[in-house]
Specification:
The chain is built from 15 helices and 23 strands. It is α/β, with parallel strands linked by helices. The longest helix is centred in the first third of the chain and has 23 residues, at about 115-135.
Amino acid sequence: MGRTTAAPIDWHARAAALQPDGRAVIDGVRVAAASGATFDCASPIDGRKLADVARGQAADIDAAVASARRAFADGRWAHQSPAARKRVLLRFADKLLAAKEELALLETLDMGKPIRYSLAVDVPAAARCIAWYAEAVDKVYDEIAPTGPQALALITREPMGVIGAIVPWNYPMIMAAWKLGPALAAGDSVVLKPSEKSPLTALRMAELAVEAGLPPGVFNVVPGYGHEAGEALALHMDVDAIGFTGSTRTGRRMLEYAGRSNLKRVYNELGGKSAYVVFADCDDLERAAKTAAGSMFFNQGESCNAPSRVLVQASVAEEFAARVAAETVKYLPADPLEAGTVMGAIVDDIQLRSVLGYIEAGKAEGAVCRAGGTQARTDSGGYYVAPTVFDGVRNDMKIAREEIFGPVMSVLRFDTELDVIALANDSPYGLQAAVWTANVHRAHRVARALRAGTVHVNQYDEDDITVPFGGYKQSGNGRDKSLHAFDKYTELKTTWLRIEPAAS
């Protein structure tokens, strides 16, 4: 008998049958907002309503923080051994994978990314992050300082307490996992405020965590608007730290809220305008162009590390611009629920108007639109933008200075190595960068000179949970991923012991 192949999933049928629960998760149970208020959660794919979501406000944040504080204070999680916490978090990761199809569908419906990537990237990456920190927590050792023989100084890493996590709408599960993994592994309690534009997977994750054995109160999720639930969380006097990912504008507010409240630690992972530098001695211009397009148009360009500012040496700039513009036909927006779609919908009408506004600004300032530049799938009821490439961009143009968060690439030209270093660094951001060159000496020189948290050489966007992610300048502070993320959610304590000399 021949092998049978599983029938393809009818994602439209599953979407029609889906009934997401939009209530908050506080103290391990689903609850409505204290006021009873809700807001509509609609899909950017076609505008359909997905759920009524609890509109969390100050009273709900108070309840979640109180629950998290009780859980931390009584030690139901923080006082468990690292090995015990590891077992629970590994079960949590397994639960995420077991619910992969449900979570992927929620992610796609909620923020518009293609189902193929929700399945193959977002859910597995979130589960892998939780599992990695689970495995790491019982392998991180404390220290003994090299003091004199009459003293013993112990340096121990302790959980910080109650962590407020505020995450964006572009990678809802992955961004949540980057906060949850190290914070929960360290023994903290967490109150998570997902974006009001994509709250559904975070709420389901909290349920799965409880099913995996995470004690009630250790992980709470309060959906709501930034100016209500987000502000209340950041201002709360009983929150010890904020882990925030989002815009630089809101990141500034996080720092202000810390100053107005209890001087809580604030760790900001903010915007980017990544410089993608292509030298004339690049030995594979076609691969450089394909990589730039693939990284720029992935996730509809809604990525803080997207290579939106491509700096190409003048002698090869025309060829590169033509190649990258030709690549856009591979990324034309289509129905995110179809298995073959590679570019989906912009998250909502507000973001759609913002992206289209930047495109018009680019045209008005004299940049040459080589591809795209228009809204797409206007009869769908959803929000789509054609992949767009601007050439002849100057670094003082709005499209070169500001983060667009949409599928819009700017190509700028340069003459010399010194010119491009100055040009690349002439930005308020410093998240990622790339250098394409066949000269190993140039690769090292330029990589060292670029002010960015990550510099890729002859590739872009290769990624692993073992390496830190974060930026310089107004791209934020602190690092997500890797063992360095524990620094954000733990305190270092020194314990001195005086050793008296033996009696003679």
